[in-house]
Structure formats: C-alpha cells, structure tokens
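JOB MANIFEST
job_type = single_chain_structure
chain_count = 1
residues = 151
[input]
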Amino acid sequence: MSDFIFRRAMEQDIEAIVAMLADDPLGATRESPNELGPYRTAFAAIDADPQQLLAVAERDGRVVGTMQLTFVPGLSRKGLTRALIEGVRVHSDERGSGLGTELTNWAVDQARSRGCSLVQLTSDRTRVDAHRFYERLGFEATHLGFKLPLD
C-alpha cells in the first residue's frame, strides 16, 4: 500500500509546485520561484477549466510530486478524447521512491475515468532518463514534437 496521496492542487500548493518545476537544469533557466504572481494567475485559469487537472502527490502532508493532465476531445480517431500529461516533477527527496510510477499510473486511471482512449506526453529530448522511465511504463516514442516560441 502506498503512503502517497494524490489530489487536485490547491492555491496553497503553488509555491511547492514551482519549487519542483525549478529544481532541475531546464527548470532552473525558465522558472522564477521568487515571483509567484504569474503562477497564481496561471493556477486560477487551470483550476477554472474543467478540462484541466493540476495534481499533486503528498506524503506526510508535504507536496512531493506534481503533474498536469489536460483532457482533449478531438475529431480524429473517431472522436477520441485523449489525456495529455505535462509538467511531471518529483521532489528530489522522493526520486527513486516509486512515486513517478504511482503518479503516472494514477494519471492513466484518471484518463480512463474521464473516458479517454489515449494518454500522451512530451518530454524534452535531453531527458534521456525520463524517456527510459516512460518506456518502462509502456509509453512509445511515436511522434516528433515541434515548438514555436511566441514573443
């Protein structure tokens, strides 16, 4: 039995979530944990959208993991609804504890409960360990992703 609790994030979780987002080489260059205003604005939009689920994992009352699920209805694949997993982070103290596996499995269960027929995610190409992790969980690298920054 797991001692992690998975739940919808609340406003008081923002600081812990942002700290985890910033706690890696990529996040350290793009996150600003000392400026929570933009994160609070984003949280309000996410929380108000029924197609979004910003989740946290707790252990002993402390936020130790996070991820965002977006539910995307579509016309392709006979009107399939997919779940998109983004922003997965596990607190540095919990890496290797099995939390990543439990959090991902929880996300897949959430997708099933919402009627999704597909779960997909993206991972920065430099996160080779993350790629191996997702492949161990049954995910396949089937697409090539592109981004266009808008200034």
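[summary]
Helices lie at 14-22, 25-30, 37-48, 76-79, 99-113, 128-136.
The mean pLDDT is 94.
exit_status = 0
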